[in-house]
Amino acid sequence: MFIPGLELSRRYYAEAVLPVVRSRFGDVPHTAARIGSGSEVLGFDTARSSDHDWGPRLQLFLEPGDERGPAIRDALRDGLPKSFLGYPTHFTDDGDVGVMAHTDGPVSHRVDVTTLDAWFAGQLGFDPREGIATRDWLATPTQALAETTGGAVFHDGSGGLTAARAKLAWYPDDVWRYVLACQWQRLAQEEAFVGRCGEVGDELGSAIVAARQVRDLVRLCLLMHRRYPPYGKWLGSAFRWLPTELTPVLTAALAATSWSDRERHLATAYSTVARIHNRLGLTEPLDPATGPYYERPFQVLRAGRFADALISGVTDPALRQRPLIGAVDQFADNTDLLSDSALTRKLLRHSFE
After folding, report:
1. In the list 10, 45, 168, 286, which could disulfide-bond 40, CB 3.0-4.6 Å?
2. Are 150 and 41 contacting, i.e. CB atoms less than 8 angstroms apart?
3. Exposed, middle or buried by CB within 10 Å (0-12, 13-18, 19+), for 23?
């Protein structure tokens, strides 16, 4: 019977990991959590997830200056049970991933014994406990923010992780407006192309543009509902959690075989999302109706109006003057790049200098 990963990790900590640590070291000040990468952190794991990088695993954060990390890792290697609730606690490396496997020897476990300082440096490239600058927000992919604020904290002796997660729960108002404006700008730049491609007989090109627009609409809806958009595999799953009725419309736009049908479904979606925007009250209400693109018979929302209105409400002069290219994952789309916090911070620095 499948046990959701977060529940498995919670019980693993309380019933297996903590007893070993206490028996060898007494009451060690620590924080325990299951955060970071993994489908279970976002709540999307299923039985299929157990084939790699899933299982009894968690982070054990020691206090700064506590030098018992290597000894605790060794104690867990020798003292943990070989399996827990039917799942092996031993992992083998299969390329870049860890796979649960049975063992008769010491347990190569996935209890990451580290510190919050080191974990934040690797995950985000900055420590949110020391404050979060605008540059930090924009240099951090939404996937990384979702991984940091998702999952579960099982014990937080110092309260540091809980406080950091609270600070990262959502963007400050100015940053939120800026990111929303940049997402509307992306829609504005291609909303007329579904019809234009179709008009010249390029149904494939029209479908490609429509798919891009659907992806950007989904990300925009998540941002409007204060949810960090996850990466591609889970984008649709996260969208299903939203209180919208857009899924059939967006699905129809993707399934359409003619540009006119794609345009019609997208026009419905544009107007629906515009009304969601108006309900947020971030700007004065804007007309949600679609209309012709200049003198051309393509139905568009003129989404740039929404970007302009949002930017006009940004109070930070430096942010207001930045180009509408957005946070790093709004203008870059490479997995290796977005998985490296040092690279994303370097890219953002160069993009604005």
Report:
1. 45
2. yes
3. exposed
Q: Residues 113-166: pLDDT tens digits?
A: 999 999 999 999 999 999 999 999 999 999 999 999 999 999 999 999 999 999
Residue reference for tokens 């930045």? 322
- Kindly report the CA angle at 334 between 229 and 277, in degrees rounded to 5? 30
CA atoms within 13 A on the CB side of 120: 18
> Rg (Cα) of the chain, in Å, rounded?
23
Query: Which amino acid is it at 182?
Result: C
Tracing tokens 């099982």 back to the chain, one arrives at: 154
Residues, the chain, total?
353
Asked if 9 contacts 57 with a C-beta cutoff of 8 angstroms, the reply is yes
Task: Give percent helix, percent strand, percent coil of the chain, each to the nearest 5.
Answer: 55, 10, 35
Name residue, tokens 């730049």. 189
CB burial of residue 217 (10 Å; 0-12, 13-18, 19+): buried
pTM surpassing 0.90? yes
DSSP 283: S
Tokens matching residue 242: 């939203």
Nearest 5°: CA angle at 39, between 34 and 40?
45
